[in-house]
Amino acid sequence: MQVNQTKLHGCLLIQPEVHGDQRGFFLETYRMERYKEIAGIELPFVQDNHSRSTQGILRGLHFQKSKPQGKLARVVQGEVYDVALDIRPESPTFGQWEGHVLSGENKLQFWMPPGLAHGFLVLSEYADFEYKCTEYYDAQLEGTIFWNDPALAIDWPQDIQIRTSEKDANAPLFKDLIFD
Among this protein's residues, is 9 annotated catalytic? Predict the structure, then answer.
């Protein structure tokens, strides 16, 4: 497996080793000791999530106000533009974002340590998006940042008509969040 540091402090882009032949392919999507040794991911995963969305659906930018979740994200089928925003006040990359195309084809994984907001936009007809979490989801703790905040200037793909939930469309701006 190949592990690459990204511009956000602690975020990694991981390319698993894929074994393929005329029958198809095989890859390990997670192996605790390998991810600890090679990628330095030591936090235990407690919850796996799987969502399916159609083209143009944008989910995010979501985070938990306390008990932040680290996430190891991948796309099983389809293609998404996956975005992480650093909302850790003590981080050297606080307020910065980055995005990567994850797809069933490229099999990339995006590790986002606890303390980041996360969102993704479906680029293909539909996408199956899976992510492992280091904390349990708690609706009472969920926070949202407006996905198209001009101050963040996230470079979402422009050739797709974006659709969001009402909650995401009415989320607060980054500057209006209170960080303890």
Answer: no
